[in-house]
Structure formats: structure tokens, C-alpha cells
Amino acid sequence: MRSLHYTVLGCLAVLLLGGPVLAQQNGSRARKRADLSIPKVAKKDVICFALYTVNDHTLKLTAQLYPLSAGDPKIVRLQIEKDGEWVEVAQTKVIEPGWTAPFRVKDWDDSQQHRYRVAHGDTAFYEGTIRKNPTDQDVIIVAGFTGNSIQPAHGGDISRQDLIDNVNKVDADVLYFSGDQVYDHNRHYAAWLKFGRDFGDIIKDRPTICLPDDHDVGQPNLWGESGKISTLSGASDGGYSKPAVYVKEVERAQTSHLPDPVDPRKVDQGIGVYFTNLNWGNIDFAILEDRKFKTGPAGRVPKQGPRPDHIRNPEYDPKSVDVEGAVLLGDRQLAFLDAWAQDWHAADMKVALSQTIFCGGAHIHGSANGRLHADMDSNGWPQTGRNRALAALRKAFAFHYAGDQHLATLFHHGIDEYRDAVWSFCVPSIANLYLRWWEPIEPGANREPGSPEYTGDQLDGFANKVTNYAAANPEKRPAGNLLNTRAAGFGIVRFNTKTREITMECWPRNVDVTDPDAKQYPGWPRTISQFDNYNPPSWGKLGELSFDVESPVVQLIDADSNDVLYTVRVAGKSFTPGAPKGKSFVIKVGEDAPQRVIAEQAQVGGEPIDVTLD
Amino acid sequence: MRQKPDYDKTPVSRQAVWNDSTMINHDSEEDIGAPATRSRAAMDHVSSTSGEMIPHNSCEPTALAAGNSGNPRLAPSAHATEKLFPTCLVAVLRAAAFLCFAGWTWVHFYWEGPYGILLWQDGTYDFANRLGISWDEFVGTDNDEGWLQKWIARIRWLFLACTLLTVTVRPRSYVQMAGLVGGSLLLCVLSYAKYVASQRQLPMFVEHGGQILSPIVLVLALVLGPRHRITIGTAILAVVMTFAGHGSYAIGWWPTPGIFYGMTCVCLGVSYETANILLRGFGILDFAVCFALFIPGLRQPAAMYAVVWGLLTALARPVAGMSMSLNYWGADQFVHEAILRAPHFLLPLYLVILWRPRQEDEPAIAHTASGTDTNPCSTETTS
Question: How far is CA A340 from the centre of its chain?
């Protein structure tokens, strides 16, 4: 009997321990984990890093501190250098949890560069530079990053020094971190400090935009659904999985330095919003915060795959998932975009910044297989919401700069026809946690000569019209599984406010972008015109407009519906508006705002118009 | 696939009952017999020869098989109850394993098992490569064409088979029992996958102990008897693993999952601060249950609490998530989450039934027992 007992107990032990042992693959490598311990620092080093933006003569700067002791002062001061002296311009109290110190300084003189330092107590000082607004520069450079995995398994532990060096070499004017700065789902503060240690040297000296995405707020995907509580594993029921206090801490750390939200009303659970705009160097950036209001798909769309948000059935009817009531951008965001698109004060170009792109931008997920017909985490869903967002953006000829996808892509979006909306550039991950491929089964139509078959006109998995121009697909079986074999990298976009050209560059990691021999991912660089962001192939041209002032603002309004077709600051003293054929338009013009009607029934093929504004 | 279970029979004698159907060792008839004559103290002892655990408050069932069907000290209603006792125990264990496998079968058929994190690895491919499977064959080129997808899909049939086995398995159905043990291994691998996906948080694996062990407990109950000490010990282990795993999260030793807060806030309509306090309290109670299960005077109420808490936490998923505004009210998203957690409350229920207080005949039995036999081993020689 005893032997029977031992046998049974032995079997139990094998069952409990054997499974994990047998299932363990690459155990030693997998166990090598990122070190997220918070280092103990000397009092003089208690300020980890600082982020800032300047907009409309208001400086917002957030200093990120290491944990303070109970006896440490909780007041942090902001000082600027004047005539060799440090002059205090603001002080603030450190906020827990998160140890953030947000400053807000009004009446900031952005025509001058300022040296600043954040001071804590008598010993801790952190110095940087508040740049002057580069309105005199022809080219504004925005370096874009996403997906900052720190896990060694795929190269996340490799130094970011190449990124630091390249940002300094091109002297980027703005840094844009589009999401997943933090992948740890429970220790945002520790990971954020590490982010600061890794990138603080470039962040401290230039405006930086951070958009916290799903992993930043501690969940694998994010459909914010106006702040509701998510209780479904995977969070596809919509809302936030983490307690609101955690989400607020994340948003405070990553976004409290952004310009004030244009509509600061909070969503459920008291979670704030941060969608706003930042005008810098005559470029008006709309910070979209595209996850905050988006509806979760679970239980709302018919099941089409192994997860509520994944569609595996290629025969499904795309219209079946475009359900009534499903939201992408909230009404408040769309109202903001409508106003933003018509406001061209101090703006030559418009750029939309969001976490992800407005289409299903990948076909294969996770590894070399896992073909998905569609992924509702992308902004290709819901289609109606996607089309509304793109329609709002194209009214401003806005270029769309995003991340999230773990796959760099270049798309020209379409709503009613191919290429009738904005261009988007999704940058590659800093270190790629999760692989994706753009690999349509059928070759794209209307491809450029010599371009790969995956380019060209396609319908994405939601039947959205997209035209692909480039995709930095990783290797099918990534050799070594480190960085560039996993298509890691970063993006650089150069906005020329004089020529109105937009040049997109997509760089792998560990290259010198100033080296003439350095190669970008296939399909990059690419240069487009600002006006390509709303130039449908079916359109024709109205009569040329000639002005007596430089670069006025022009607005076209549908004469029948009174809907604004678009508003744009033109380049130079002439402009030939594009417009749909067979319709009549009111044309309004002004130096900074479209205030004067110069035509009421303009049509394609109409006569030229001389406009006097001065 | 065979014969009637012993506990369905009217016991004629101790040996007749279990010899015929439970396959328990025939020299250890104590599994049903003598406790009718044991003292209360003796009930807490464990037979050194058989391992049969006879809890002090579980003496009634022993009267059942002891050939005591005609025991004049038992009222007729008690006899009827006692006849059903082993049947009831095994039925509870059967239900636990059945619902657990049924829930996971639903996941595998309707959704997808969580194996991706284990299988999409170079190591897995290397293993497949050694079996002569090329990279293209391994990953495929389209939907569900790859070797991996096919095998992941086939696992669903194994879960379905295990679900059926929990219904059909009988005491001498060794092949079916082996299948259930294999099913337990499947649950173990599944739990390991979730453990890896959770960035190797130990409680994630531990809390699945109840599910992993539920088929094992059923098999043990059929092989050794539902009141055998190994059966009971394994059931206690399963409950302890579940509650210790949950408790580790709730108390905050590992990061408390957001879903814990979410369910608490939504179900109870409380704020985060209140939910935090409640979760810490529930975590402490989870561990209190784990300890109390080993204390004779406390184990029955502890098991009762575990039943209630296991049921509530299982139901919390659909209660918090389902809504009239969702397709099927969200049932396809949430109901299986409650079903597959059935062992969380049914295994404690098994213990509650096992340890249930004496009924109306208790004084007579206790009196007799205390006066005649304080050594459970000695009683075995009486049969």
C-alpha cells in the first residue's frame, strides 16, 4: 500500500513539475530578464530627466524624480539662466505616485533659447536647453520612435547610444515617442526612469512628445472606451485593465508636459485626456490620443477569429464588423480636428500624431505565420470611424506620423477612392517585441515600376482602401532575433516649410545616418508634397489663384452643402486649388484666416482669379 | 468503459462495496467501515495501513459500508443519506473535472488555447526541425496551414475527449483514467503557458492548481475511494494552490492584476481605494483558508468559505463583463471563464461534504465509538 502511495505522490510531483520542465524552451535565454530595479542615487542625482514643450508662449516642463525620502523637500524649482545667473521662474510640488514635478510657465519668450535647470534642495540640479521656436528654419526635423522593449530576448538590452548619436547628428527639432515607451505592465515608474536614463540626454534639449499606448498603461491592447473598466483578459471589451490611479500616473509622467488639452473634461474613472495641438517651427501638430475613446470589439462584432479582436476568416463580410455605435475618435476629438484643420495661424504645415495608423497595416502577426485577415486593435476598425478621422485630417492636408505596429510602413490612404486621403508613416520599433509583416496574398495594383508586389493599391482586412509604398518587413526567421533582423529602427521626417515637401526616412538600428553609405529600409527615403495629403486622382483643378501677399490661407467650401472641403496655407503667391469635378465651391482667402470670399461658384476648369488682400 | 460504480450499490458489507467496484486494496476495508464505531478522536487519525483518512466529522459514511446497513443505531433516513454519500462525493469531483474541461474545450473550439507563447519559439522550431519538419512546413504560408497551427487546433479534440472521459470514467476504466491524467498534463502545460505569458509570475501557475488537479482527484477517488487520504490530500492541495495563488495576487505579493480591481469595482460598485482594501483582506482570507484546511476544528468552515468564495470569484467574470448591449449578452466572452473555474468551488464543496457535521444519529454513534474503539486500525480487524 505504501508503495502505491509513493507511486501516486510521485506521479503528482511529475505532473506538477514535469510539465513546466518539459515545456521550457530556451530556458536560460528566456530567464534573462530586463533589470528594472530602481537604482539608489545620491541626493545630487535625484532628478532623473526632464521633458518639455513650448506652445503659444507657454512652457510646460515635467521633471521626473527618483523616489524621495520622507525628510526630503517635496518642492522642485525651475530656474533659467539670465546673464550668468540662475533665476527661478517656477516651483512645483512633487506628485506621488510617480514622483513627477510638472511646471507650467506662462508668457514664455520662445524667440530666445534658454538654459534651464531643475533644482531640488541645495544639491540636485538637472540642466538642459529650452530651444527657441525654430520659425526661421526651412526644415523641421522630427525623429520618431515607438516600441521601446527592454527585454534581452530580442535585443532590447542593447544600448540606445546609436539613437542618441543620430538624433544629435541630425539635430532633431522635435522628438516623437508614439507609444510603448514602457512594456512592463506593472512597473511603469521603474521603466519610465530607465527610459529617462536611456533617452534623457536628447530629451532634455528639445521638445518631446510622448503618447502612452497600451503597454504603457499596462495592458496588451487598448480600446479606451471613454475610460470604462475592462474586465476581460486582453481588454478587448474596452476600457482600462489597470486601476485608474495607475493610468493617471502613467499619463501624468508621459503627457503632463504637453500643451494643455483643448477639451480637458475627464472621462470615466476620472481619467484625463490630453488631445491637443503643438505649434512648433510653423508646423501645427495635432496630438490625437486615438485610443482614449475607441470602442472595444468584444461582444460588439460577430466573432471572426480566435480572439474577439482578430479576424481570421477571409470570407467574412467587412461591413458586418462596422457596427453602429462603434467609435474610433470621440466626438470631442473630431470637433477638435475640425477646428484645428481650419486654424492656420502661425502654421505652414499640419501633422497628425497618433499611436497607430488608420488601417490594418499588417497581415502576419506574431511570428512568420499567424496570418490575420484583420486586427481590430488597428485604426482600420471601425471603418466608419476610420473614414471620419481621415476625412477630418485631409481637410488640413495633414501628414500622419505614428507607430505601434512593430512594422514600419508607408501608406497613402483612401476613403472613397484610392489615394484620396492622407499619407501615413509608421516608424519601426526601437526593439521589436512582436513581429509583423505586410504581405498581401495578391500583388498590389497600380504599383510603381520595379516596386515589390506587396506595394500598390490594396484593400486591407476591413476593406479600407490603402496604397502601400514601403514596408520594413522583418526576416521570415529572424537570425539571432536581435534588433535589425527584427526590423528595429527609427524614423526621421523632414518637413520643409518653404517647399512644403515631406521627406520620410526609415533607419535601422546601429547605423550612422550621416554616412553616405548607410542604407535605409527598402522603400525609404520618400518625399511627398504637403498637398499630396488631399489630392484624389479623380479631382480636377480650379482656376489658378494669384495673391498679392505671401502664403495666404485658402479655404474651399461646397457651395451646395456648405461643408468645408479643405483649408490650407498655400506656398508662395499662387495656388491652383484641386477640387471634385462637377461641383461648385465658395473660395475664401485671408492672410492668417479665410475671411474673405473671392469666389462663390468656382468649378473645375474655371478662370484664374487675382486676389488682393493687402 | 465499464461497470457500475461501487457507490451506486447498496452496501452489503464493507468488502462487498469497495471490493466490487472501487478497486481499493482489499486489506484496507477501513475506507468505509469501522468509523461507525470510532471515537471522535479516532476519526482524526489516519489508518496506517491504508491511508484512508477518516475525519472526525465524517463518521457517517463509514457506517454506510461497514456492513452497517442494518445498524440499528442509524435512522432509516440516515441510511439513505449514507448510501448516497460516496456517490455524492464522486459526483462533485466528476462535475469539477467535467466543467473545467468543458470550459477549456469551449476556449479551444471557440477561441484559442494560450500556447502561442510556448510554440512560437526558435527552440520549438529546432525541436520540430529535428523531426524533419522544415521551416515552411512549420509555420505554413497561410491561415492555419502550418504544422503549429494544425497541432494547436488538434489539442481541442484532446480537451473534448477529456470532457467526455470525466463523464464515462468508472473505477476500473484504467485507460480512461490514463486519459484524464493526460488531460491533467494538458492543463498543466496550458497553465505553464499562462505562467510564461505573465512574465513568469509564480502565482499564475500555482493558482491553476485546482484546475490541473481536478481530474487527478477524480481518478484518485475512483481508484482509491473518495475518502482515501491521498484523494483528500490531493484535493486539499488543489484548493490550497488555488487560494494561495489568488491570495498572493490579492494580497499584493505579486502585482495584483488589474482585472481583480476591475471585477471588484464593477461587481461591488466600490472605488479603487475600497477595492484595494477589500482585495488585501480577501488575500489574507485566502491564506487563512489554506492554513485552516489543515486544522481539524476549522477546516469545515474554511472549506465552506472556499466554496462561497470560489463560486463568487468564478461568477465575477460574467457578472462584471456581461451586458445586455453585447451580442449574446457577452455570454460567449465571459461564461466559460466561470465554468472552467468550477474546481475552485467544487473541490472545496467536496471537502465540505466529506467533513460535514454529524446528523441526528451522531450522539449514538459517538457514544458507542468512544466506548469501544479509539484506534482506527483496530477497527479494521473487525471486518
Answer: 18
